[in-house]
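Q: Hi! First time doing this. I have a protein sequence and I read that you can turn it into a structure. Is that right? Here it is:
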Amino acid sequence: QVQLVESGGTLVQPGGSLRLSCAASGSSFTLSAMGWYRQAPGKQRELVALITSSGSTNYAYSVKGRFTISIVNARNTVYLQMNSLKPEDTAVYYCNLSTRDRGDYWGQGTQVTVSS
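A: Yes, that's right. Below is the predicted 3D structure, encoded as structure tokens:
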């Protein structure tokens, strides 16, 4: 089994910054991609950012230019740097791990609230 542990969510003012972290541990795996998704109340879960094992990235249009996803392969850890945060970024953020040999995994979620 693989476990994902997320951290970094908190209350932040509009215009502020946060960095989310997600570390994978447990059984060994072959990484395909890691990503961040978010779900706001009453809305469906949506992709925020994705990074593949080769370093290719993909961002939701709403966060392009404000968020940056990065990965430290040796630590199986993915980060999401979020700048210029807006109230509409408020959501529970979930980490996702996609492997080539052990399926997909989700973290427990971390709450990000952007409010003055």
